[in-house]
Amino acid sequence: MSGPFPINFLQFGWIDAADVLLVTVLLYQLYKLLRGSVALNVALGLVSFYLLYLVVKATGMELLTKILGQFMSVGVLASIILFQQEIRRFLLSVGKATALERVRGWGWGRPAEVAPLAVGPFVEAAKSLSNKFTGALICFTQASDLSAFAESGDRIDAEISKRLLLSIFNKTSPLHDGAVIVAGGRIKAARCILPISENPDVPASLGLRHRAAIGLSEITDAVVLVVSEETGAMSLVRHGEVHRDLATAELRTLLNEWLLAGQQQGRPTGAEAAASAPVP
Ligand SMILES: Nc1ncnc2c1ncn2[C@@H]1O[C@H](COP(=O)(O)OP(=O)(O)OP(=O)(O)O)[C@@H](O)[C@H]1O
């Protein structure tokens, strides 16, 4: 049953089939990770070099083989340096997909006794900040664990309130720079540093605040609320996509919808789901 089966002259076993399948999945995941970033072009350049190296080696061009061979021998090290951001993201996404992370994520992000997450204070605070052209960046934890990003800022672990959000993002507040992270129905941290997106397709009109929101949403399933300091526009970011210039009602609806969708995907159990369901 599990023995090799011949394809013309090749012996192709189940292990080979699994091998090819795993490599395909791995390459596809890598492509998804690099898609839309400049790293994809660098990766294609490196692959082209490798193919050229194989060709010149096969044809016996000694000098060129030697030169390209030198290049290839440092290629692995150079790739690790060049792609350190992408490798980190890849490992993060692998970790994110494991059951262990889900358990860990729930432990940090969704404690059993969590108060209902009301989107009202966030929407009201965003509206108020928008009217005053005060920038804001708020990340909502879903299944992905954001504790590593929370650790880059100042721990708060406070009850959610519109007043607290307004105080944090007030331009004179020492906490206003960076992002607020929300998890388990609480404001966990402020002044957090998020990864900046390298996607060249991000419109030039969007500043660093939006790029940071996009960056986080590319590598986690977090939903990020952004208020632009320049235009006062309110936006929501998820899966690397920005929904710009939202009206207050749209913001409330979309935020409720996305947070609920995230919870259903995370499949929290009965009481936990009821306890953490978003409410207006
Ligand atoms: N990596 C980051 N992580 C978290 N916050 C960031 C990051 N980079 C920038 N910010 C936030 O964005 C603010 C500055 O961004 P920038 O000046 O580009 O915003 P802006 O011009 O108001 O644009 P936007 O319209 O996106 O708000 C910083 O003061 C900081 O609060």
Automatic annotation (TrEMBL):
Belongs to the adenylate cyclase family. DacA/CdaA subfamily. It comes from the Bacteria. This is Diadenylate cyclase. It comes from Hymenobacter antarcticus. Keywords: ATP-binding, Cell membrane, Membrane, Nucleotide-binding, Nucleotidyltransferase, Transferase, Transmembrane, Transmembrane helix. It catalyses: 2 ATP = 3',3'-c-di-AMP + 2 diphosphate. PROSITE patterns: DAC. Catalyzes the condensation of 2 ATP molecules into cyclic di-AMP (c-di-AMP), a second messenger used to regulate differing processes in different bacteria. Probably a homodimer. PANTHER family: DIADENYLATE CYCLASE (PTHR34185). Gene3D superfamilies: DNA integrity scanning protein, DisA, N-terminal domain (3.40.1700.10).
